[in-house]
Write a structure and sequence with these properties.
This protein is mostly beta strands. 14% of the residues lie in helices and 42% in strands. It is built from one helix and five strands, in the order H-E-E-E-E-E. Strands 4-3-2-1-5 form a five-stranded antiparallel β-sheet, covered by helices on one side. The chain is globular, with a radius of gyration of 14 Å.
Length: 83
C-alpha cells in the first residue's frame, strides 16, 4: 500500500480532510479534500470549498497527499483513558 493510498484511507475511515496535490484537467491543483469512497482505480471526494458536490477522480491523477493543517494524525488524541 502506497503512502498516498494510506492518506486516502485515513480520510475515508475517519472523515477527516487531507491536503492533496493532484492534476485536474491536466493542471496541478492543491487543496483539502475529504474522501467519500475509494475503489481500486478511482476515488470520490468533496473539496473544502464545495462540500455539496462530490467529484470522482482517477487515483493515478493524485500526485501527493499529507495531513491537513492542524491535523497531526494522532487518532488516539481524543480518546479518554479508562484505566
Amino acid at each position: 500500500m502506497s503512502l498516498v493510498e494510506r492518506f486516502l484511507r485515513y480520510s475515508l475511515e475517519r472523515g477527516r480532510p487531507i491536503k492533496v496535490m493532484l492534476l485536474r484537467d491536466g493542471q496541478p491543483w492543491s487543496g483539502n479534500i475529504t474522501v467519500l469512497s475509494l475503489e481500486e482505480n478511482q476515488f470520490t471526494y468533496t473539496t473544502a470549498r464545495n462540500k455539496k458536490t462530490p467529484q470522482t477522480m482517477r487515483a493515478d491523477d493524485l500526485l501527493s497527499a499529507s495531513y491537513a493543517r492542524g491535523d497531526d494524525g494522532d487518532t488516539l488524541a481524543n480518546r479518554k483513558d479508562t484505566r
